[in-house]
Design goal:
By secondary structure, this protein is of the alpha+beta class. The protein contains 4 helices and 7 strands. Strands 1-2-3-4-5-7-6 form a 7-stranded mixed sheet, with helices on both faces.
């Protein structure tokens, strides 16, 4: 397996994987170029792309570091933004390994909590140490999961 770290979302492989992912979700996008440009313009998104031995795409995990703050407290968290594994490659450990890569990135960058939303993979995240946090509301109305990273 080969994992490639990117922060340029004009990468043709990323774009292809992302479009497949959104198609599977039933999400239509009018202007793909504008979407990928917006990801780049934020200048704080990262991803790992995963390939098999023949350089066929297996999946990706896209993430960023965000800061929650109030007038008194602030905390950095690693945010898993998007996550996809090719349906032909699921249940083979690829998702677990991609998630681990993102978590390792967070830890190396002094970020010790990860947050994400999901409406499809609750059991997967619980298996990997995430817990549902009903005190946080997401704009997409999906369940919010948090993990303290060591």
């Amino acid at each position: 397996m080969k994992n490639i770290f990117i922060n340029d979302f004009r990468d043709t492989d990323f774009k292809s994987m992302f479009q497949t992912y959104f198609t599977e979700l039933g999400v239509s996008v009018r202007n793909w170029d504008r979407l990928f440009k917006a990801m780049n313009d934020e200048n704080r998104n990262f991803a790992y792309l995963r390939y098999d031995e023949e350089s066929n795409p297996i999946g990706f995990i896209q993430f960023t570091v965000i800061t929650f703050s109030s007038g008194f407290f602030g905390t950095k968290m690693g945010f898993i933004r998007e996550f996809w594994v090719n349906s032909n490659c699921r249940s083979n450990g690829h998702g677990s390994e991609l998630l681990q890569l993102a978590e390792e990135y967070f830890i190396k960058n002094a970020v010790h909590k990860a947050i994400l939303t999901t409406n499809t993979a609750e059991k997967f995240y619980i298996k990997h140490g995430y817990t549902k946090d009903v005190t946080i509301k997401a704009k997409n109305n999906f369940d919010v999961f948090i993990k303290v990273l060591r």
